[in-house]
Amino acid sequence: MGVLGPSVAAVTTSRLVTGTRVGEAVVLSYTLEFKVILLGLLVAALAEAFRRGARLRAATEGLV
Fold it and tell me: Exposed (0-12), middle (13-18) or buried (19+): which is 26, by Cβ within 10 Å?
């Protein structure tokens, strides 16, 4: 949500003022930070690794 929220706000604001008198005054400026995206992907990868580890631990619990 750290990437999606500001981008949606920038696009919707741009679409709302397009064709109006203030349309030229409002400039669409949105920068995408790759650090935030990489951090989100890292958290998702870690969550998936822990989920699979927990499932493997539950599956082998009766074997040992």
Answer: middle
Tell me how far CA of residue 51 lies from CA of 12, 16, 26, 34, 36, in angstroms: 37, 43, 45, 26, 22
Q: pTM for the full model?
A: 0.53
> Token digits for 57?
């631990």
Q: Tokens 């074997």 appear where?
A: 63
Domain boundaries, the chain: 1-32, 33-64
CA distance 2 to 7: 9
Q: 4 with 40: CB under 8 angstroms?
A: no
**pLDDT digits over 25-37, tens only?**
777 777 777 888 8
